[in-house]
Amino acid sequence: xxxxxxxxxxxxxxxxxxxxxxxxxxxxxxxxxxxxxxxxxxxxxxxxxxxxxxxxxxxxxxxxxxxxxxxxxxxxxxxxxxxxxxxxxxxxxxxxxxxxxxxxxxxxxxxxxxxxxxxxxxxxxxxxxxxxxxxxxxxxxxxxxxxxxxxxxxxxxxxxxxxxxxxxxxxxxxxxxxxxxxxxxxxxxxxxxxxxxxxxxxxxxxxxxxxxxxxxxxxxxxxxxxxxxxxxxxxxxxxxxxxxxxxxxxxxxxxxxxxxxxxxxxxxxxxxxxxxxxxxxxxxxxxxxxxxxxxxxxxxxxxxxxxxxxxxxxxxxxxxxxxxxxxxxxxxxxxxxxxxxxxxxxxxxxxxxxxxxxxxxxx
Length: 363
Ligand SMILES: [Zn+2]
Known about the structure:
Blueprint: H1 2-32, E1 35-38, E2 42-46, H2 51-72, E3 82-85, H3 90-94, E4 104-108, E5 113-117, H4 124-140, H5 146-157, E6 160-164, E7 167-172, H6 177-184, E8 188-190, H7 191-196, H8 203-214, E9 227-229, E10 236-240, E11 250-251, H9 254-267, H10 269-294, H11 298-311, H12 316-328, H13 332-345, H14 349-362
Parallel strand pairs: 2-3, 3-5
Antiparallel strand pairs: 1-2, 1-11, 4-5, 6-7, 7-10, 8-9
């Protein structure tokens, strides 16, 4: 009877291990399965899971493009197609961001312009709009002071487009929610001070306020006042001759995606490399750890599995494999902690069931 029970347990463990192996490869495959969608003036590269976000992003960009052209003239547009790149995860995004506060970047390359956005950004459409305005200003007013350019990008980031009877109107000049509180506390802005400092998260509010007061009337080369009283900020409603953009969106072929990836790697060589190296290292650690674990060499397997989990902590099946190795090595406390992580990071029913069935055998 005892022998049979132990057989049963072994088969459960083996199936857990098989799930782990299967998912390791499946996850690796998903990581490289990227998708890119083209609208009339943009190409948006991302992962298949972000399809809905990408569609919304493209629609926003086409509408913003048309609205800005209606406000300022036909030349007020970015290069076309502007390439938008959304990394697969936050770790990959961090290779691009200079600071934690940064949510998007615009880079003008040879012949192609790129916007890279944080996939976890809370105000995704505003970030995307902000970066698009950088791409427009880069062509139309390339010599703006940085702080003022940032202010204009913020000014249009929450541009609202709405239908008014048979026509359209835009609403601009509403302080973005993230700036409202800061703006309440500052009646005036020392522009010399603003211009003399690097941009920080709180200075975007000041830059927005200066743009609110000076922007639409600003001409290239105009002098800025040293100090500017700010507020109140009533919204500006402007009727426009707006031609609704085409809604067509189509998937790029595998070959086109490969070319896009190549262009991107040429544009951002250093930013791209470490992510791949890190991912490859995590997977190599995991596979070797699993192999040793299968041979019963859990003592040698554990440090490798620990390293893999530390590098990719969102991978439930890896935590399950680590928990199993701990359990076989009689490290019950560590096994419990690892299996809790496996349950917390499970992305689907299969991962969750595998982790929970192992948890039962640990407790
Ligand atoms: Zn910016």
